[in-house]
């Protein structure tokens, strides 16, 4: 479904992605593991159209999307939860979650159906729905950002370091929410970046490592990797 | 006497508000301090006055001036504002602020000369709409209904309308989202380029509407735009750039302050708006109504 081939990108003349190859099938869960500054965020931003791509292609359902404008990419069914949440602070939680669907002129009943669906997967958000986004804790904010990505991410959801900065209890809760999502929506693909591979060990079917903008597939899953071993130190 | 000063200040403040709120909106969303905003005010005034005079020449009824004001404001916003945004500003958004200032300043200078070429340098006077609305007597002094009632009502309608538009409509919310985080907004499917264009057109139209309404109260001469840009910048800075309700309060403060000066200390008349701005910014450098950013985590 998502095919990335030979993708290179730069920020102000510095190359941050080097000939990246990656593919995600329908409903796949894929982890992208790398240190801070390795290029995880850059790769997700490139998929969303926010990077200056210098080479390679990104295909979605067999169609090249590099020339699709950034604001039109969510319309393909791509949901994106950026690393630092980036909720709109003057809106309530529910306004934040509804926003992308409203912008895309999704009919009211369909928005209501998707909302009900989202609250099923993330029940704690239902109680917070009228709270201002500015007053959320870190964990609640991550949940809200995931919910907002789910609103339009009917095909694939990109999660940038969702566990970053979460206390262990919240990280477990977040992982449980992801599992619930996995069970209720097996057709949605997930691409999750993380600097700490142990968090995704029992979760991702396929894993890639990224280092200095170069991506390699980790064969045999996360548990078998040296990366995971390094993490235990 | 205080009441009289207050009534004067209300009319004056309302007019500045219309221009300042457009300037503030554009800065809040696009992050560009638009010096050419004064030109939109001036061109709005000239186009409206010309339209009113032309309509009178054709023997059309005077009340037609009011819809003409609105139409000319929107026309100026779309044609002049839209062209400036699409052809020039769009190229400098992520560039240095000095460059943005220079570009809008250059546009301002070009438009100033264009006004002289198109509308001439002779004063233009079209006060029929103001006279048509009649006068009202307050404590033995006659005020025009136009200045005391119409202009403040229009300002109030703009304030309420703009607030409702930004909070209740989906395009309004898209504008707010782009203001807070352009990239996150685009990742939600919002066309930020279109939001910028339409915001700029709305802001420019508001300045032109201020100009159109003022065209009935004074004679139009070259240079009216430069006076207004400085004044509306003072209002927007006092309020905190980007604050809509704040601009209304600051415009009223500066309007009242200035008309109080006219009554009680005329030699400070011109100075007062800037004095208020300096005092406010000394105490609260981010402006009266700017709340510091909330914590990220």
UniProtKB/TrEMBL annotation, chain A:
One of its GO terms (biological process) is L-amino acid transport. The keyword Transport applies. Residues 2-231 form the ABC transporter domain. Keywords: Amino-acid transport, ATP-binding, Nucleotide-binding, Transport. One of its GO terms (molecular function) is ATP binding. PROSITE patterns: ABC_TRANSPORTER_2. Coiled coil: none annotated. It comes from the Bacteria. Belongs to the ABC transporter superfamily. This is Amino acid/amide ABC transporter ATP-binding protein 2, HAAT family. It comes from Bosea lathyri. The lineage of its organism: Bacteria, Pseudomonadati, Pseudomonadota, Alphaproteobacteria, Hyphomicrobiales.
From TrEMBL, chain B:
The keyword Transport applies. GO terms for molecular function: transmembrane transporter activity. The chain crosses the membrane at residues 12-33, 40-60, 66-89, 101-126, 146-166, 195-214, 220-239, 271-292. One of its GO terms (cellular component) is plasma membrane. It is found in: Cell membrane. The keyword Transport applies. It is a multi-pass membrane protein. One of its GO terms (biological process) is amino acid transport. Its main location: membrane. It comes from the Bacteria. Keywords: Amino-acid transport, Cell membrane, Membrane, Transmembrane, Transmembrane helix, Transport. PANTHER family: ABC TRANSPORTER ATP-BINDING PROTEIN, BRANCHED-CHAIN AMINO ACID TRANSPORT SYSTEM PERMEASE PROTEIN LIVH. This is Amino acid/amide ABC transporter membrane protein 1, HAAT family. It holds the Pfam family BPD_transp_2. Belongs to the binding-protein-dependent transport system permease family. LivHM subfamily.
